[in-house]
Amino acid sequence: MTQPYVKQTIENEVAYIEFFHPAHNSLPGNILAELAQTITDAGTNNEVKVIVLKSGGNRTFCAGASFKELIHINDEATGKVFFSGFANVINAMRKCPKFIIGRIQGKTVGGGVGLAASTDYCMATKFAAIKLSELNIGIGPFVVGPAIERKMGLSAMSQIAIDANSFYPAEWAKQKGLFTHVYESTEELDEAVKITAEHLCTYNTEAMMEMKKVFWKGTDDWDTLLADRAKTSGRLVLSDFTKEKLKGFK
């Protein structure tokens, strides 16, 4: 079994940050912390002008948070720390002064949709269906909600949050503003990502940094907001309803 990892490679001033976990790229706390730090570091690295966020494997971009960790939460404080994992990555992406391009090669669920929504320009394959499944286990997409709402609007976010059993096709996500382009294959996606990222490197870094501030206007309170949302999830995950639901995943 391949070990989980976060790795970064820099090519032609583009930092490719890749995460992987053998359980459909579902992310435990230590991998989320490493991912947040890697994004932060790339933001201050003078050798990097643009960042690409991607995941390993072919089928799934990110299945959200690690259920294995979720099952073992027994108090609110631990719950808050667990749900702060995705909050910290989203905030790292928000504060990063460089454009982040998302490369979404396959299905994405829960927190993974939050990561896609927090990129500045998100490209996908036709296999990149999205789902917010949190309500199924008695919680909700509280932490990732602001990022998804910011990108897709409250109507689309609430639709997929309520319809927690359904995958929505990549084309739908494109119509709602999550994806900029949808490609037929991973090969086509990779080629387009590379061209887009390297082209962006020819632009004025300062102009891109100022544009990023404009794109994220009105999100200055997210450090507090997402921490509060993590607290809500941390409380709900202790409910009898959720505990009962999670038994099915053991």
Keywords:
250 residues; alpha/beta; 6-stranded mixed beta sheet; 9 strands
Would you write up a description of this structure?
This protein is 48% helix and 16% strand. With 250 residues, the protein is an alpha/beta fold. Strands 1-2-3-5-7-9 form a six-stranded mixed β-sheet, sandwiched between helices. Strands 4-6-8 form a three-stranded parallel β-sheet. α3 (76-95) runs parallel beside α4, α3 packs antiparallel against α10 and α4 crosses α5.
Distance between the termini: 19 Å
For the sheet with most strands, the description reads:
6 strands, mixed
Strand order of the largest sheet: 1-2-3-5-7-9
Oligomer type:
single chain
What is the radius of gyration computed over CA atoms, rounded to a whole number of angstroms?
Answer: 17 Å
Tell me the structural class. alpha/beta
Percent range of helical residues: 40-55%
So how many helices? 11
Order of helices and strands: EEHEEHHEEHEEHHHEHHHH
